[in-house]
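We now fix the convention by which a protein and its fold are recorded. Think of the row as the fold of the chain written in a discrete alphabet. Here is one such record, which you should read through line by line.
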Amino acid sequence: MLFLAILPAGAQFSDYIYWSYNGSIVFLASDNGNKNPPQIVPSLGISAAYSIFKHLRVELTEDVYFANYEFNGYPMACEIGHSEAFVAGFTTGLQLTGFFPVAPNETAFRFYGGLAADLRLVTHSLGLSSYYQNENKQQVENITNYFWANGRMFFASMGLGIDIPFSDKQSLGIDLRAWAPLYRLWTDKDLPEIDGWRFGAGIRISPRKPLHPLRPTRAPRQRQPSVPGNTESADEETTE
């Protein structure tokens, strides 16, 4: 609805929308000793950006990732051998993106930042028998309650990237991203500083479109020719 509200009169909505699809790896940073090193997980995503000014877009993103967790006072991403729960994360972001062309072929740098919410669904580790699922039931509940309490879903997101055309219809992008745990401002202050941070690197595919679509302008008002000495408008008819 926001896109529709700021769409110029007479414009084609699709002219101002830029889609992309991405695949990346995400580093789930933590400092939990030698038991479980920080985990790297795959992620897939999609985004839609709306051009609001020449070099500025508002962008909605959705990224999905999967990870294994254990609970030792708080959830920690871990290897599957230590896993007590399987987590599917859906990270929804809203950000402002600056777009800056650097070459005539539409190559452009991107810089972006905004807010994100990570909605995590927690279930038993994959492959566990019903006996071990009962054993881990409390751990799964602890992990679920932790993720959904005290605003632990909220992150600040930031990143940069470059888009390079590689065909007549598509561009290839390279992205570096980071997510900072906003909830650490008001909770979990006793945890290691790095815990909760995420770092990602990946590629994205975007359909090629003009970087800065021209916005429609009103046609200049046509003035009727006037006849010297005639004070009446040219479009009025006179009667005898």
User: Anything to note?
Assistant: Strands lie at 17-28, 39-53, 56-71, 75-77, 85-101, 108-123, 154-165, 170-181, 198-207. The mean pLDDT is 84.
